[in-house]
Amino acid sequence: ALVQVVVVIQVMDPDREYTGNIRVTVEGEEILEGRELVLTSEKTITMPVTFKGSISIITGIMNAPESYGRLVVSLSYQTSSTDNFITPYWDWSGGGKPESVKEVRPGTIRLTIEEIKEVLVPVKLYLTGDAPTGYKVEERDPSPAYIKVSGPSSKVSVITEARASYDLSQVKDTVSTSREVEFCDSAGMVLD
Q: What spatial distance separates the first Cα and last Cα of the chain, rounded to whole Å?
């Protein structure tokens, strides 16, 4: 006797929750410029994002998130300087959000946006070394005597001088030269 048996095997792709660090794409920085604002947070930001859905899709997202989309923070609505806690959104690319992805939970991310400030800073010339025998320094006036510096308020507000230096040991005649300046704070520390 020949007996035929039908076997049904159902394979489930169970839901899984996975959290991984994803790079954040910041959009809209150019809009800040027209509002005299600047983003002073790090330019490369990663943050934890939780995906919930079928194991096969979630595994694919975690292995190559850029194939599925990107995590976006939009600055287009920023109108003032402040520390902002912003919730990014997941921008699905290609065919859109897979049906088996039930949830995407980015947290909030802190971005610092500052006003652009302009300050007038005195230029100071610092001479090092000694002039060769028989020579002496009569004038040492930098030109210009002041320069305008603009940038994020927190950075330019601490600048008290623009420092240029020159080594006198090789001087044998009147010198007119260009020098790089370093920006310093009130304690004389060179700023980045």
A: 89
Contacts of 80 (CB under 8 A, 6+ apart): 37, 113
Cα maximum dimension of the chain:
123
Sign of CA dihedral 48, 50, 51, 54: positive
Report the C-alpha gap between 61 and 43 in whole angstroms. Answer: 23
Q: Which residues, at least 6 apart from 134, have a Cβ–Cβ distance to it below 8 Å?
A: none
Contact, 143 vs 124, CB < 8 A?
no
**Across the strands, what pairs with 126?**
165
Helix (H) or strand (E) holding 102: strand 101-106
Task: For residues 128 and 170, give the distance between their C-alpha atoms in angstroms, rounded to a whole number.
Answer: 11
Rounded to whole angstroms, how far apart are CA atoms 188 and 14? 62
Centroid of chain to Cα 132: 48
Q: What is the pLDDT of residue 79?
A: 63
pLDDT at 112: 83
Average pLDDT, consecutive stretches of 10 residues, N- to C-terminus, the chain (192 residues): 79 79 84 80 82 84 83 74 74 76 82 88 88 77 90 91 87 80 91 84
pLDDT given at position 122: 94
